[in-house]
């Protein structure tokens, strides 16, 4: 069978069923070259030419969602990892870094979330690295319980990397989906450094996508390593950091 040289990747993608369609990228932004050099050797680091782009509209966020946070107390949640502080203030969930302790994750007691759309709003009172674990698990270690798995990165309001919405493999090999491509320019500009930010995560089968304030960021295909697990709100270890969350909701999918 002869191959038609005029048939491009786009043409072949167009012939696939709609559920299988995707867009690929491949160019590291020159402004991200130093970050690419630093992270490209991590275990999970993807080949830029094989990364997929999230070109989809943020899911509808009104119908079928249930709250994960009641605005009164931490019922349904358990902190794991370190000793950073989580509390409820004025109907919002506040996480505060405690210097000298490990990264801490406020985790849902329900631990079998599989297919879902998750959304929350968050802002920083004090700059510090954060994120939302999903399909996460724990393992016992010499220093106690370790939370591991994929995390939607929310890296803070200073710095020059701009990878919020990317997907990090927490305690399991580093970035699954760094936000370093030229095509990620809008995604790197999506974070509001002064106000609230809406993070949305869609997980259907092994396809995971993220949005920041409605702007598409990640399109990651899991290799069936993390089929289900719990959600966890991170306060990263360090000298400072305080993050506020509200409107934490999930819609489970068939």
The class by helix and strand makeup works out as: mainly beta
Note the overall shape: globular
Work out the count of structural domains: 1
Helical content (DSSP H or I, runs of 4+): under 10%
H/I helix tally: 3
CATH class: Mainly Beta
Poorly predicted spans = 1-21
Mean pLDDT: 92
Question: What does the largest sheet look like?
Answer: 8 strands, antiparallel
- CATH architecture group name: Sandwich
Descriptors for this entry?
254 residues, mainly beta, Jelly Rolls, seven-stranded antiparallel beta sheet
Describe the structure.
The protein has three helices and 17 strands. Strands 3, 5, 6, 8, 13, 14, 15 and 17 form an eight-stranded antiparallel sheet that branches. It has a seven-stranded antiparallel sheet with strand order 4-7-16-9-10-11-12, with no helix packed on it. Strands 1-2 form a two-stranded antiparallel ribbon. It has 254 residues and is mainly beta.
List the helices and strands and how they pair.
Elements: H1 9-14, E1 23-24, H2 33-39, E2 52-53, E3 66-67, E4 77-81, E5 85-89, E6 92-96, E7 104-108, E8 116-126, E9 130-141, E10 144-154, E11 167-170, E12 174-177, H3 185-188, E13 197-204, E14 207-212, E15 215-221, E16 230-235, E17 242-252
Antiparallel strand pairs: 1-2, 3-17, 4-7, 5-6, 6-17, 7-16, 8-13, 8-17, 9-10, 9-16, 10-11, 11-12, 13-14, 14-15
């Amino acid at each position: 069978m002869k191959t038609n040289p005029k048939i491009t990747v786009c043409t072949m993608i167009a012939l696939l069923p709609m559920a299988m369609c995707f867009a690929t990228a491949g160019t590291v932004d020159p402004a991200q070259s130093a970050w690419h050099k630093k992270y490209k050797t991590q275990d999970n680091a993807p080949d830029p030419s094989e990364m997929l782009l999230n070109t989809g509209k943020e899911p509808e966020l009104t119908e079928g969602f249930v709250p994960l946070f009641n605005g009164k107390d931490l019922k349904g949640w358990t902190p794991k990892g370190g000793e950073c502080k989580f509390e409820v203030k004025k109907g919002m969930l506040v996480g505060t870094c405690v210097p000298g302790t490990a990264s801490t994750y406020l985790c849902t007691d329900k631990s079998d979330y599989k297919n879902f759309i998750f959304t929350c709003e968050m802002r920083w009172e004090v700059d510090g690295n954060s994120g939302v674990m999903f399909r996460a698990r724990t393992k016992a270690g010499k220093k106690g319980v370790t939370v591991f798995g994929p995390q939607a990165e929310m890296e803070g309001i200073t710095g020059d990397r701009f990878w919020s919405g990317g997907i990090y493999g927490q305690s399991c090999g580093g970035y699954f989906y760094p936000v370093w491509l030229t095509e990620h320019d809008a995604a790197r500009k999506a974070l509001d450094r002064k106000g609230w930010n809406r993070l949305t995560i869609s997980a259907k089968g092994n396809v995971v996508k993220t949005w920041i304030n409605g702007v598409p960021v990640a399109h990651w295909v899991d290799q069936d390593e993390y089929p289900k697990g719990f959600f966890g709100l991170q306060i990263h270890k360090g000298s400072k950091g305080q993050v506020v969350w509200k409107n934490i909701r999930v819609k489970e999918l068939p």
